[in-house]
Amino acid sequence: MTGGQSRAWDDDGVPFLARLERDDRTALLSIGRPLSYRERGVILHQDEPSSHVLLLLHGWTKVTAIAVNGYEALLALRGPGDIIGEGAALSGRHRSATVTALEPVEAVVIDQGRFTLFVSEHPRVALHLLSLSTDRQRSTDRRRLEWAALTVRERLAVLLLELVRTHGSRTDEGIELTIGLSQQEFAGSVGSSREAVARLLKELRDRQVVATRRRRIVVLRPDVLHRIAGDTSA
C-alpha cells in the first residue's frame, strides 16, 4: 500500500507540475537550477524575505508555522511535483511558514524575479497557480470544519489513516508509515499537546493497534483506527 491516490493536507491530489502542459513544465524547469537538501535540513525559514521558489522533484517535506505563543503547527506535507514558496514570491511578503526536508530532497530552485516574469508571460501557468491556491484553501477550510467536530483521539486516528493511504508500505508486521514524524509534529497536526499525543500513542500501543519506532509508526490494526475515527463503513 503506497500513496498516490490521495495526499494528506493537500489539494485534490494533483501536484503542481502534473497540472502543467508538457511545454510549460519543461520551460519552467529550464529557468531554474538543481539543488539538494539533506534529511531534516531546513529549506525555507518562516518570516524570512522571499528570494526564490522551489519545485520538488524527489523527497518529502513538512510545512510548519510557529504562533506567537511558541506553538508549532504542522500545516502540510509537500512532495514530488509540488511547488513551495510561490505565495511569498508572488506577493512580495515574507515567508509564512518553515519548510523542512523529511528525507533527502531534490529540487529545482528558481529566482523570484525569473519566476514572476515567467508567470506573467505564461497565462496558463498563472491559471494553474490560481487553481492550486484555491484547492489548497478549500482543503484547509474542509479540514478545519471536520476537525472542529472531532476529539483529539479521533483526529489522531484520522491522521494515521491518511498517512497509511499516502505514505504506507505493507510489511510482515503491518503497514509502516514511510515518512517520519515526531510526536510534536503529530501534536501540531491534530491541534493538541505533545504530552496528549504521547498518551494516545501509548494507548494505541497497549491495545496493539500500532507499534512505534524512532520517528516510525507501524499500523497493526487499521480497522480499529477506522472505528475510533467514526468510519462505520470500515
TrEMBL record:
<keyword id="KW-0804">Transcription</keyword>
<dbReference type="InterPro" id="IPR018490">
    <property type="entry name" value="cNMP-bd_dom_sf"/>
</dbReference>
<feature type="domain" description="Cyclic nucleotide-binding">
    <location>
        <begin position="16"/>
        <end position="115"/>
    </location>
</feature>
<feature type="domain" description="HTH crp-type">
    <location>
        <begin position="150"/>
        <end position="223"/>
    </location>
</feature>
<dbReference type="InterPro" id="IPR000595">
    <property type="entry name" value="cNMP-bd_dom"/>
</dbReference>
<dbReference type="InterPro" id="IPR036388">
    <property type="entry name" value="WH-like_DNA-bd_sf"/>
</dbReference>
<dbReference type="Pfam" id="PF13545">
    <property type="entry name" value="HTH_Crp_2"/>
</dbReference>
<dbReference type="InterPro" id="IPR012318">
    <property type="entry name" value="HTH_CRP"/>
</dbReference>
<protein>
    <submittedName>
        <fullName>Crp/Fnr family transcriptional regulator</fullName>
    </submittedName>
</protein>
<dbReference type="InterPro" id="IPR036390">
    <property type="entry name" value="WH_DNA-bd_sf"/>
</dbReference>
<dbReference type="InterPro" id="IPR014710">
    <property type="entry name" value="RmlC-like_jellyroll"/>
</dbReference>
<keyword id="KW-0805">Transcription regulation</keyword>
<dbReference type="Pfam" id="PF00027">
    <property type="entry name" value="cNMP_binding"/>
</dbReference>
<keyword id="KW-0238">DNA-binding</keyword>
<dbReference type="InterPro" id="IPR050397">
    <property type="entry name" value="Env_Response_Regulators"/>
</dbReference>
